């Protein structure tokens, strides 16, 4: 059974894979990593003498949930990229097998 990716030309596959890679990089830089840093900051032991109120369990739980959801999104993008790259690999192997420019 062919997937929709297999219906694309190699150029379209490369274009789409590059778009997904940029989207993943942007998500990691602007979404995932900041959420992880925020969770790390929230989970640090606080100085009891400080004027800061203690961090609640609900705040930690919400931050963990945001990191987990962001990780799921990253994994989905990574899986889509992998599908494109496998399809591109098959296209290149087929081109090499039959020779470039031959029908």
Structure description:
- There is one protein chain.
- This protein is mainly alpha-helical and 103 residues long.
- The protein has helices spanning 10-43, 57-98.
- Helix 1 (10-43) runs antiparallel to helix 2.
- The longest helix has 42 residues, at 57-98.
- The protein is rod-shaped and about 75 Å long.
- The model has no long low-confidence stretch (mean pLDDT 91).
Q: Layout of helices and strands, plus pairs?
A:
Blueprint: H1 10-43, H2 57-98
- What is the straight-line distance between the termini? 23 Å
Provide the succession of SSEs: HH
Q: What class do helices, strands and sheet pairing give?
A: mainly alpha
Query: Beta fraction of the residues?
Result: under 5%
Query: Uncertain spans, ≥5 residues at pLDDT below 50?
Result: none
Rg over C-alpha atoms, rounded to the nearest angstrom? 22 Å
The chain-level mean pLDDT equals: 91
What's the structural domain tally? 1
Number of alpha- plus pi-helical segments: 2
Largest sheet: none
Helix fraction, binned, reads: over 70%
Instruction: Give the CA-based shape.
Output: rod-shaped
- Strands, total number: 0
């Amino acid at each position: 059974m062919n997937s929709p990716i297999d219906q694309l030309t190699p150029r379209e596959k490369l274009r789409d894979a590059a778009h997904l890679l940029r989207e993943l990089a942007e998500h990691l830089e602007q979404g995932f990593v900041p959420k992880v840093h925020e969770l790390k900051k929230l989970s640090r032991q606080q100085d009891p003498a400080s004027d800061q109120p203690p961090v609640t369990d609900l705040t930690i739980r919400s931050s963990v949930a945001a990191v987990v959801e962001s990780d799921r999104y990253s994994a989905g993008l990574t899986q889509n990229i992998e599908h494109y790259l496998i399809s591109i690999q098959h296209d290149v192997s087929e081109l090499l097998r039959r020779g470039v420019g031959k029908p």
